[in-house]
Amino acid sequence: MAAMGRVLAFGLIVMASCISGEEESDQGAGNVTKPYVGPAVEGLHWAETFDGDVWSRWSHSGAEKYNGRFRVQARTQEALVGDLGLAVPEEARHYGAAAAFAPLEGREGVPFVVQFEVRFQEGLTCGGAYLKLFDSAGRAAGEFQDSTPFVIMFGPDRCGGTDKVHFILQHRNPKTGKLEEKHCKDPPSVPHDQLSHLYRLVIMPDNSFEIHVDGERKTSGSLLTSMEPPVNPPREIDDPSD
C-alpha cells in the first residue's frame, strides 16, 4: 500500500470479511515464478510491504466485532516467491487491523493517491476487503472499531446485490457540524476471479477523482458533484407543495 499527497494526520485500518465461493480461476495456466525483491518506496509518504516484524507496525482491532485474526503469509500460489500479505484464514469472520503513519502535509498541485492489492484466492461469495483512513485523534491503533469516524473508505465489496469498489467520504457539514457520508455515484464492479488486483484511488487538487483497477481508469468524477448525496447541495430544492 502507498499513500502520498494532501490530507491530514491519519491512521489506517484494513477490514475484511469473506465467505468463499466458486469463481473463475486462471491459476496454474503458464505460471512463471521469480524471487520477491522488496519494491523501491522512496518518495512515498507511507508504504507497507509486510516484510519484517509486521505486528510491531500493525495492531488488530480490540472491538468485539472483529473476531478474526489476520495472518502474514504468502499466497497459495506464488508468482513472486516470498511476497507476503495479510491473509484471512477463516470464513465468516470480521477482520480489522490498523497502522499509524506520520501526518500528511498538503503540497500544492500534488494529488493524493492510495492503492493496495487484493486477491480473493479461494473465490468470494460474500465479503469485502477495504481500507479506511482515519484522523487518529490521539487513539491507539488497536482502539479503532466499525463505528469510528473515518475520512475515506475505499476497496472492493461483494455480497448479495452489492458488487462494487467502495469510495466513501465522511464530510463534516459546515452548518450542522455533523458528519455525513458521501458515496461515489458510479463505482466500478469487483473483478470475478481469483487473481490479484490493484485498486487505486486518486484525488486531484481540483477536487476531481479517479478509481483505477489494475492501472485502468474505471470511474472518474468530482468530489463536489459525483457523490451521493452531493458535497455541495443544490442551490434550490423542489417544493412539491409549491
TrEMBL record:
Q: How does it sit in the membrane?
A: Single-pass type I membrane protein
Entry-linked PROSITE patterns: CALRETICULIN_1, CALRETICULIN_2, PROKAR_LIPOPROTEIN
Q: List the disulfide bonds.
A: C126-C159
Molecular-function annotations in GO: calcium ion binding; unfolded protein binding
- Is Endoplasmic reticulum one of the keywords UniProt gives this record? yes
Location in the cell: Endomembrane system; Endoplasmic reticulum
Keyword list (alphabetical) reads:
Calcium, Chaperone, Disulfide bond, Endoplasmic reticulum, Repeat, Signal
The keyword Zinc appears for this protein:
no
Q: Which GO terms describe its cellular component?
A: endoplasmic reticulum membrane
Similarity-based family: Belongs to the calreticulin family.
State the protein's name.
Calreticulin
Species of origin reads Alexandrium catenella
